[in-house]
C-alpha cells in the first residue's frame, strides 16, 4: 500500500494516540490480550509505511517534534536505516528503562532492519563500532535487549559484564532476574549491577 502524504500525518497521530492509550490501559485493569490487540493495530499502521520515503517521514517527525514512536516507525519506511532510528530516539529524549512502558517502542522496530536475537553476544556484536556517540551506542544495545521476546541468553564470559554502564546494567539485571535456577556467580553479578545502579535513574528497583 502506497501512503499518500495526507495519510502519513494520520498514521503519526494514531500511533501516538495509541501510545497514550496503551499506558493508560497498562496502569488499569486491562488484560494482556487487550494490550496485545493495541500493539497489533500499531504494527498494522506502521506496515503501511513501506513505500513511504524515510526522508519524508523524518521531515514530518521533525516538524511535529521528534518522538520515540516517530523514530521507531521510521524503521518501516522505504530506504530507512537503523542508524536513523537510534538518532531519532536519542533526539526525542525518551528514556529507556527495563519496564514495559519504556520498552514498548523498541518492539516496534522493523525486524528487517533489526533481526531479533536472544543472544547477548550477537546483540553487542551488532552495535560494535557503529556509533561515535556513546549515549547512542548504549541506547542501541538497550533497545535491542528490550526487543527480546523471551529469555535473554547470557552467552558471554561473566567477567566481561561486571563493568557494564548503568543503563546496560539495568537491562542485564532485569533479564537475569527472569532466568530460573540462577547460579551463585549470576547472583553475584546481580549484586554488582545493583551497586552500579544505586542512585541512578535506571534503578527501577530502588522503591521496591
Report on this model:
The chain is mostly helical and 208 residues long. Helix content is 55%, strand content 0%. The protein is built from 10 helices and no strands. α7 (120-127) packs antiparallel against α8 (134-146) and α9 (166-177) runs antiparallel to α10 (184-197). The longest helix has 19 residues, at 8-26. The protein is globular. The termini are far apart.
DSSP strand (E) fraction? under 5%
The major sheet is characterized as: none
Q: Which structural class best describes the helix and strand composition?
A: mainly alpha
- Quick check: average pLDDT? 92
Q: What share of residues is helical?
A: 55-70%
Count of DSSP strands: 0
Number of helices: 10
CA distance, first residue to last residue? 47 Å
Oligomer: single chain
Low-pLDDT sequence parts:
none
- Backbone CA Rg: 18 Å
N-to-C SSE series?
Answer: HHHHHHHHHH
Shape by Cα distribution: globular
Question: Could you give the topology of this structure?
Answer:
Elements: H1 8-26, H2 32-47, H3 54-64, H4 68-74, H5 82-92, H6 100-103, H7 120-127, H8 134-146, H9 166-177, H10 184-197
Helix pairs in contact: 1-2, 4-5, 5-8, 7-8, 8-9, 9-10
Amino acid at each position: 500500500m502506497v501512503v499518500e502524504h495526507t495519510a502519513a500525518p494520520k498514521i503519526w497521530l494514531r500511533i501516538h494516540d495509541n501510545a497514550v492509550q496503551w499506558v493508560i490501559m497498562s496502569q488499569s485493569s486491562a488484560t494482556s490480550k487487550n494490550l496485545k490487540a493495541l500493539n497489533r493495530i500499531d504494527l498494522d499502521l506502521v506496515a503501511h509505511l513501506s513505500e513511504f520515503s524515510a526522508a519524508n517521514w523524518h521531515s514530518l517527525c521533525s516538524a511535529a517534534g521528534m518522538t520515540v514512536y516517530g523514530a521507531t516507525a521510521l524503521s518501516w519506511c522505504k530506504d530507512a536505516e537503523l542508524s536513523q532510528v537510534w538518532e531519532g530516539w536519542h533526539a526525542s529524549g525518551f528514556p529507556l528503562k527495563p519496564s514495559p512502558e519504556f520498552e514498548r517502542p523498541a518492539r516496534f522496530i522493523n525486524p528487517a532492519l533489526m533481526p531479533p536475537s536472544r543472544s547477548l553476544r550477537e546483540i553487542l556484536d551488532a552495535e560494535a563500532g557503529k556509533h561515535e556517540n556513546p549515549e547512542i551506542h548504549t541506547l542501541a544495545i538497550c533497545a535491542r535487549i528490550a526487543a527480546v521476546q523471551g529469555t535473554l541468553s547470557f552467552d558471554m564470559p561473566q567477567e566481561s559484564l561486571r563493568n557494564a554502564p548503568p543503563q546496560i546494567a539495568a537491562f542485564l539485571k532485569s533479564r537475569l532476574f527472569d532466568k530460573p535456577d540462577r547460579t551463585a556467580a549470576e547472583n553475584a553479578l546481580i549484586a554488582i549491577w545493583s551497586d552500579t545502579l544505586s542512585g541512578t535513574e535506571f534503578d527501577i528497583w530502588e522503591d521496591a
